[in-house]
Structures are given as structure tokens and as C-alpha cells.
Amino acid sequence: MRLTPREQEVLSHVMRGRTADHIGREMGISARTVTKHLENAYRKLGATNRVTAVLLARQLGMI
User: Fold this and answer.
1) What is each CA distance from 1 to 16, 20, 41, 56, in whole angstroms?
2) pTM for the full model?
């Protein structure tokens, strides 16, 4: 279970409390694409929300 660099980047922004709109503007992608990256990360990590995804990714040294 590996996160793509984009999924890792999105989770890094989420860890700092950014919204999908804010992340999208910073990364030059749509908020929908940000949401899709999050959904993929949730699936790979077995998470159901942002907080759990960030915690698991941090524990696994992914972000």
C-alpha cells in the first residue's frame, strides 16, 4: 500500500488544516481532484476520514 506523491502532498496539506478548495488552489488542481486523491488515500490506508488518514500516514512515515 503506497501513496502516490500527489496523495502524500494532499495529506500534508490536510495535516495543516487546509480545505479541498485551498489545497486545489495551492496545487493548481480542482477541489474535485483533491477529493479524489483523498478518496484514494483513504482506500489505501483503510481510513474513513481526514483525521484518520493523516494519523495513519504519519505513523507509517508517509508524510
Assistant:
1) 23, 23, 9, 12
2) 0.93
